[in-house]
Amino acid sequence: MHIFRKLQLKRYWQVHPLALALYVSIIIVSLIPNYFQEYQAEIKNITELTEVQKVYYHDLDGDGITEKIFLSNSKENRMANVYYLDVNDILINQWNLKGKWLDKPMLYFGDYNKNGYAEVYCITQDP
């Protein structure tokens, strides 16, 4: 009788509702696809010159060569500017933005339309 009771106890844990829920959840979790493989987080180099002048290094065109993105204010009217320079500090493009930078200006990068070219995002305030 003692052996029969031990067998019932072992089998009880195999068919217990919590054990069954654990088995089903393991199967379901193993079947869920990993959607987060395509995303990666990287620390980018940022050089802060003053509170409204920063230099970012990011590969915008996806060619493996890092470009320099310079965030600053224009000298005449203190409007927000973003300069896009190559590795030899030659100006590729310049964006004169409407408004002024926030107290702590930041640039954000991302490939929103998935065309292989990263876009530059920033937030300014209109006075």
String of helices and strands: HHEEEEEEEEE
Globally, the shape reads: elongated
Give start-end ranges of low-pLDDT stretches: none
Strand content: 25-35%
- Number of discrete helical segments: 2
- The value of Rg in angstroms is 28 Å
Structural class: alpha+beta
**How is the quaternary structure best described?**
single chain
The main pleated sheet reads as:
5 strands, antiparallel
Topology of this structure?
Blueprint: H1 2-15, H2 17-31, E1 46-50, E2 53-58, E3 67-73, E4 80-85, E5 91-96, E6 100-101, E7 107-110, E8 119-122, E9 124-125
Antiparallel strand pairs: 1-2, 2-3, 3-4, 4-5, 6-9, 7-8
Q: How would you sum up this structure, described in words?
A:
The chain has 127 residues and is an alpha+beta fold. 23% of the residues lie in helices and 33% in strands. It has helices spanning 2-15, 17-31; strands at residues 46-50, 53-58, 67-73, 80-85, 91-96, 100-101, 107-110, 119-122, 124-125. The strands form 3 sheets. It has a 5-stranded antiparallel β-sheet with strand order 1-2-3-4-5, with no helix packed on it. The protein has a two-stranded antiparallel sheet with strand order 6-9. The longest helix is centred in the N-terminal third of the chain and has 15 residues, at 17-31. The protein starts with a helix and ends with a strand.
